[in-house]
Amino acid sequence: MVSPSEFTLEKLYDLRGLVALVTGGGTGIGLMIAQGLAANGARVYITGRRVEVLQHVIEEWDSKKEPHMGRMIAVRMDVTQKEEIQQVVDKLRDCEGKLHILVNNAGQVGPRSPELNQPSPTAPKNAEELGNYLFAQESFEEWSTLFTTNTSAIYFITVAFLGLLEKGSHDKSGFTSNVINISSISGLIKISQGHFCYNSAKAATSHLTRLLATEFALKQIPVRVNAIAPGVYESEMTNDVIVGQEATDASGCPIISVPARRPGTHAEMAGTAVYLASPAAGYMNGQEIVIDGGYIAVNPSRA
Fold this sequence. Notes:
The chain is α/β, with parallel strands linked by helices. It has helices spanning 9-12, 28-39, 51-64, 82-95, 127-137, 140-160, 162-169, 196-218, 266-277, 295-298, and strands at 19-23, 43-48, 72-76, 101-104, 177-182, 223-230, 242-243, 246-247, 288-291. The longest helix has 23 residues, at 196-218. The two termini are 38 Å apart. It contains 10 helices and 9 strands. Helix 6 (140-160) runs parallel beside helix 8. The strands form 2 sheets. The chain has a 7-stranded parallel sheet, sandwiched between helices. Strand 1, helix 2 (28-39) and strand 2 form a beta-alpha-beta unit.
């Protein structure tokens, strides 16, 4: 019989001494995850382009954290610039010599076509009007920019840190370094929500997660890759469209009856990330966890 101590929360979710990096860690979902990892003992590097936002997070965290909790460290990084990514890789190699947890969270909403499903006088009424509206509303440049931030950056950041992640796996017995990609239910549902580009990029992120997990496993690289597909959570992307108990998607259009009838909480997001990062999820690889209050259950999706 396995010792009962193996089933304790301290054993299953022990992140003490681990090093984590969270992109876009200064606000929204990234901050929720960074706080969850640090609260459970990890040393968490949070990155972003707005250094002042990161520094404010660090100051607030240091003033409230308890002694057993981990530190947060602010590092500027534009996830679309290879030079800046490499600088952070070099910094962690010098300061830590390893990485245990990489959370690819940074993202944007991108171009929108708000008239697509609106019952307004200016909304397109037939195929030609719809085609002309969508063709004129968005640009190749906007699509390219969003895919660079939301999908391509995940690839380049993950492979850039892969050597440090492998070192992290050999650093602690019974632990496997891991990557957590933040996708979205928008990449799983079959309606555009007025932003074809965002939903397409998130769908690509979901598949990229599986590709990376499979290639690493086939090459016997001890790094797990999983994804979290959030529904509506309070963040900079959704702040303007969450009112009381009625939630709307990031495009501002009412969503179809979220069974939970509320946005997700900080603890629910952090708890999911802590699970994936911890020894408890050591047997999970190449998977995507949907945490959406039941949205996928009542909307057309490919999940």
